[in-house]
Amino acid sequence: MAATFLNISSVKLNKWQVALILGTPLAIGLGVYVFRAKSGTRDEATQDKTRQKSNKSKDAEKARSKGKIENQTLSIDGTAPDSELERSKKSAELGEKLTPLAEANNYKTEGNNCYRNGKYDEAISFYDKAIDKCPREHRTDMAIFYQNRAASYEMLKKWHKVKEDCTLSLENNPRYAKAYYRRARAHEATKDMSECLDDVTATCILEMFQNNNTIMFADRVLKETGRLDAERGMREHVPVVPSAAFVNTYMRSFIADPLQTMNVPPSAVADTPPRGFLRARRAFDDQKFDDIIAACTEEIESSESESQYKVEALLMRGTFYLLCGSFADSKNDFDAILANDDADSTLRVYAFIKRAALFIQTDEREKGLADFLEAEKLKPDNADVYHQRAQILLLLEQIEEALIEFDKAVRLAPNHAIAYVQKCYAEYRLSLMTSDQSRLERVIRDFEQAIEKFPDCVECYSLMAQVLADQQQFPQAQLFYEKAMKLAPTNPSLLVHQAIMMLQWRGDIDAAVQLLNRAIEVDPKCELAYETLGTVEVQRAQLQRAVDLFEKALLYAKSQAELVHVYSLRNAALAQINVTRKLGIDMNTISAMAQSGFVTQPGM
Q: Which of 198, 266, 273, 347 is deepest in the core (most CB within 10 A)?
C-alpha cells in the first residue's frame, strides 16, 4: 500500500500548519506546538510579590537542562525571602499580634524553605499548620497551601495524597492551572490516563496554550490514550472495502501487477454466470470491489478439479484484505502462496511485494525489507520490486536509498509515469534535506519534463503542485491543481490538498471547508478528508463537530498507526469539551484572547 500513503508524511506536515494559518490557539494533539514569544503567563506566585526571582530563573534553567518533562520539578507557590520571615519573628518578639492569615503565611514560608532543602516531611508539617491556621474565606491562599503540600507529597511519590490535595486546592480556586498540572502528573504516575488527559487539557486551556512544556506533556498523554484506544479499536475494527478512488490509486502504483495484466480467456468470461475468480475478475473490471473477497473465497474453497485460479484468487483476496486493513487475513493468503512451491514465480513475487507492504503497515520493518529482497531474488528484472520498495524507503525517510530504487525502476520501466514523477519528488525531498539549491532547480525542470512526457498523468500535476505549494508559490501551485482536477475531477486527495493550500495561502477557511466537504461528497470513505476537516473544526472551536468527524475517520482508518493518530485527535477534542463545560469557559473566548495577546490566567 505504499503508493496510497506516499504523500501522507508531507500532507501531515502541511496539516499541522493549519493552526498557524488560522491564528488560533493550537488544540493539543496536533503534533506541533504554538506558543507566543512572551515572558509567559502570570505565575500564581503573584499572590506573594516577594518571591525570589533568582530561584525561579535557576529552577527554569535546571528544568531545561534535564530536557524531559517528567524530570522537571513543578515549583511551589508563595515563596518569601528569609528576610521577611525574620521580620515576622521580630514582630512576634516585640509582642505585635499577627493575624491568622499572616501566621498561616509564616508557616507556609517555613514549609517552602524545608521544601527547597529537600525536607519534605517537615514541609508537610508546616503546610498542615498553615492550612489549619488560615481563615477559610481566604480561598486563594488556601489553594496555594494545598498545592504546596501536594508538591511535597509528589516528591515522596505519595500519589493518592497528591491527588487529594490538588482536588482540595481546586475546590478553593477552580482555575488554578498549577494544581491541575500536578494532579495530571499524579494521574499519569498511577496510569489513570483519562483523568490525566482532562487535567492536562485544563492546564493548557487556562494557560491559553502558551506553555510549550504543558502542550508537550499533553501530546504525550494523547499518544498514550490514542495507543490504548487503538489497541481496542484494532480488535473491534470492522473491515471496510475502500472507495474506488482509493483502490484505483493503489492499483495505478503498480507497473505490471498480474491481477491487472493477466489475460482471462474470453470464453471463460462469457460463462453465465461466472463463478469464483472469474466472477472476482469481472467485479474488479466493473469496479464492484465489495464483491471481490466473496468471489475469491468461492474459488479458494472449491475442489482442486474445479479451481483453475486458486493462486490468483489468493493473491487478489489477500490484496483486498490488505486494502481493507484485515492484516491477519491478508498475511494468511500471501503466506499460502509463498508456501506453494508450484505457484507461478510472478505470483510469488507479488505476494512477497504485498506482504512486505503489510509488514511495514504493522510496524515490522525488517520483515518487510526482507520480503523485498526475496522478491528481488526471484525476479531481479521486475520493476515493481524496486518501485514499491522505493516508496517504502521514502516513507521511512531513507531518501538516498529510495532514489537508488526509483532509478532502477525507471530504467526498467521508462514509460511508467508514476515511477518517473515519484523519482522527481524524491529528488525534491533530497534537495531540501541537503539544502542543495542547484538540485532543487534541476528538480523543477525534471517535473516540467515529466509533465511534457506524460501529459495525462494526474500524479505529475498533483506532485508538482505540492512542491510549488511547499515553496510558497501558491498561484502556480493552484494552476497545476486545476490541471489535475480536469483529469480527475472526483479525486478526493486533490481536493484535500487544495484545501490545505487554501489555508496556507489565503487563510480562507470557508474555501477550505467547502473543498473538504466536496472531498467527502465524492468519496464518503475518504479518511483523510474527515480527519483534516475535523482538525479545522477544532481550530474553529467547533469541538463536537470535530469529534463527529474524527469518529467517521476512525471507521475508515486501517493501520494501528492511523488509529492511534485519529484517536489522539478525537480524545483531544473530547477532553476540551469536558474541561470547558466544567470550567464554564467558551473556547471561542479563549481563541479571541490568545489572538489579542492576552495571556493572563483567568481568575488568578
A: 198
Q: In the Cβ-directed half-sphere of 336, how many Cα atoms lie within 13 Å?
A: 16
- Residue matched to cell numbers 482442486: 304
Residues 495, 516 contacting (CB under 8 angstroms): yes
Establish how many alpha carbons lie within 13 A of residue 218's alpha carbon, considering only the half-sphere containing its beta carbon: 32
Angle between helices 560-583 and 193-206 in degrees, nearest 10: 60
Closest by CA to 41, choosing from 175, 186, 171, is 175
> Would you give the DSSP letter of residue 242?
P
**332 burial type by CB count under 10 A (0-12 exposed, 13-18 middle, 19+ buried):** middle
pLDDT in tens, 79-130: 555 555 555 555 555 456 889 999 999 999 999 999 999 999 999 999 999 9
Round to whole Å and give the CA distance between 348 and 315.
Answer: 9
In whole angstroms, give the CA distance from residue 546 to residue 558.
20
- Asked whether the beta carbons of 212 and 555 are under 8 A apart, the reply is no
Q: What is the rounded distance in angstroms from the CA atom of residue 213 to the CA atom of residue 204?
A: 10
Q: Which of 170, 174, 88, 76 is CA-nearest to residue 124?
A: 76
Instruction: Provide the total of helices (H) and of strands (E) in the chain, helices listed first.
Output: 32, 0
Mean pLDDT of 498-506: 94
Before 524, cis peptide (omega within 30)?
no
Q: Which residues of 85-124 are buried (b: 16+ CB within 10 A; e: fewer)?
A: beebeeeeeeeeeeeeeebbbbbbbbbbbbbeeeebebbb
How far apart, in Å, are the Cα atoms of 479 and each of 442, 458, 473, 484? 21, 13, 11, 9
Comparing 88 with 157, the larger pLDDT belongs to 157
The H-or-E segment that residue 145 falls in is: helix 139-155
Could you give the angle at the alpha carbon of 367 between the alpha carbons of 364 and 369, nearest 5°?
Answer: 105
Instruction: Give 3-state DSSP helix, strand, coil % of the chain, rounded to 5.
Output: 70, 0, 30
The amino acid at 555: L
CA distance 327 to 29: 27
Instruction: Indicate the residue type of 259.
Output: L
DSSP annotation of 124 reads H
**Could you tell me the sign of the dihedral formed by the alpha carbons of 441, 16, 493, 229, in that order?**
positive
**Dihedral sign, CA of 413, 418, 424, 426?**
negative
Write the DSSP symbol of residue 32. Answer: S
More confident residue, 33 or 562: 562
